[in-house]
């Protein structure tokens, strides 16, 4: 479920929830720092999406959303919660220094949900 939370955060905001210059720095942040959710990343997103991320990225697996609870969370389960992704998510991902398989897959997912006009303009 942790991985679902990480990928969901990236898809919603365009950046990973834990950052660092190296893997040890990222691991240290995951283990020792509180989850930082910046208002600017969430301003255009639903409160349900923020709640989902907070619950699914709890450090304690016992307190984290289970698969059943995640699927039944209002962000996932309620039809009205489906929002368009922010266009700047694609831009943030493109500027990211990380390259590789995951980044390509995230771009493919975003291309499915972002309007063609936004992609062409970008």
Straight-line distance between termini: 32 Å
Regarding quaternary structure, what we see is single chain
Structural class of the helix and strand makeup? Answer: mainly alpha
Number of helical segments? 9
What is the global morphology? globular
Number of strands: 0
Evaluate the radius of gyration: 15 Å
Tell me roughly what share of residues is in helical segments: 55-70%
The pLDDT mean sits at 77
Strand content: under 5%
Order of helices and strands: HHHHHHHHH
Unreliable spans: none
| Main sheet properties | none
Topology:
Blueprint: H1 2-13, H2 23-32, H3 39-42, H4 47-56, H5 67-72, H6 74-77, H7 88-95, H8 101-113, H9 116-121
Brief summary of the model shown:
This protein is an all-alpha fold and 122 residues long. Helix content is 60%, strand content 0%.
3D structure, described in words:
The chain has 122 residues and is an all-alpha fold. It has helices at residues 2-13, 23-32, 39-42, 47-56, 67-72, 74-77, 88-95, 101-113, 116-121. The chain has nine helices and no strands. Helix 1 packs antiparallel against helix 4 (47-56) and helix 1 packs across helix 7 (88-95).
What are the key terms here?
single chain; 122 residues; mainly alpha; 9 helices; 60% helix
